[in-house]
Please model this.
Amino acid sequence: MRAWQVHELGEPGKVLKLEEVEEPEPGSGEVVVEVEAAALNFFDILLCRGEYQERPELPFTPGGEVAGKVSGIGDNTELQAGQRVIATPFPSGGYSQKVTVPEHSVFPIPESMPFTSAAAMHIAYQTAHVGLHRRAALREGETVLVHAGAGGVGSAAIQLAKAAGARVFATAGGAEKVEICRELGADIAVDYKEENFVDAVKEATGGRGADVIFDPVGGDVFDLSRKCVAFEGHIVIVGFAGGRIASAPTNHALVKNYSVTGLHWGLYNKVMPELIPETHEALIKLYEQGEIDPLIYKTVPFEEVPKALELLQSRKTHGKLVTTPLQ
Model:
């Protein structure tokens, strides 16, 4: 079978090699998934560089988010051959035609869900759902500000906030991405390159501010967000796509009575693993009800994965990039 392999660390375009490798065999508690679709994520770029918090032994195959069918079953498993599933061979392994995954990292999907949508859903929508509902305790009627709303996790947060009955503001860079935010359901979308989102939020809320701010950007965006968070509001820190890690002045949080809440979704897999299947069931229900649908920028040929990761790195995409190894 074919798989993308990294033998030395560096930029994906230089170090990824498409090779013939041995087909995987499942061990106890494991299944083999025949990969119909795999999502491309920024952490795959970091893995190739050796800059991610986990560093697999060389050689390794990137790809932590796939969808496909169970094709092999190890001992002590309950899944059945042929089941349609999402799987997270995290942090690596998915850019291949087949991958071995622990059963606890495999989740069933309905016949109605395309494999490309399934591959694009798991990490982004799990992150957004846990961030909004568990970390920020979002309530119907509240106001949510989503930064980088046209991105993978931002687009998920817009849809999930709307599904929860929230009023949604979103920021994005450029007219095209702002329009995408509106199409996803944002009530107000702001081009942060052209407009001050702090003023826009304050004006739209009568000066009160946003009850929940979902921030995968950090840096200057976090600094500005502190100026438009509501009394008893929550700023949920999801990532640092902006590059700079901001400081949170505790005196400001005290004076304005708001909280700064961290969200490392991957840690729930280790500390509270039972939350992941519960959240998955909630997401599948929302998908079947038509409330959410993953935003896919492009489905790229398997042979073009390195180029696609370079495109992802350029931040010129929106939503998720997906590849189809079996085609």
